[in-house]
């Protein structure tokens, strides 16, 4: 990523920005809106990840309960994981 930034760094100058504005480039719309949207997605993704972790913990608990009901499955589990 650093290399990519270094590649584009020479293009980012006051003159370049002025020319782009003269050509009609809207920095707020072209840069600000996508950046705001992306940050929102990242924040929302953190919430989704937390919910997914909780769901996975519930799945794990359910599997453990199902294992405890079947004596043969529990015996196989104990053989696979003797310390459990």
Radius of gyration: 27 Å
- The strand count comes to 0
What low-confidence regions span 5 or more consecutive residues with pLDDT below 50? Answer: none
Shape: elongated
Structural class, from helix and strand content?
A: mainly alpha
Q: For the record, give the distance between the C-alpha atoms at the N and C termini, rounded to a whole number.
A: 44 Å
Describe this structure in words.
By secondary structure, this protein is mainly α. The chain is 82% helix and 0% strand. The chain has one domain. It is built from 4 helices and no strands. The model has no long low-confidence stretch (mean pLDDT 83).
Write the layout of secondary structure elements.
Layout: H1 2-8, H2 14-22, H3 27-69, H4 71-80
What is this structure, in a nutshell?
With about 80 residues, the protein is mainly α.
């Amino acid at each position: 990523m650093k290399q990519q930034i270094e590649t584009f760094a020479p293009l980012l100058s006051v003159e370049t920005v002025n020319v782009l504005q003269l050509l009609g480039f809207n920095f707020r719309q072209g840069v600000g809106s996508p950046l705001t949207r992306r940050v929102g997605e990242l924040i929302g993704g953190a919430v989704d990840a937390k919910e997914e972790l909780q769901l996975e913990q519930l799945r794990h608990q359910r599997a453990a309960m199902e294992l405890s009901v079947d004596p043969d499955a529990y015996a196989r589990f104990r053989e696979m994981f003797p310390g459990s």
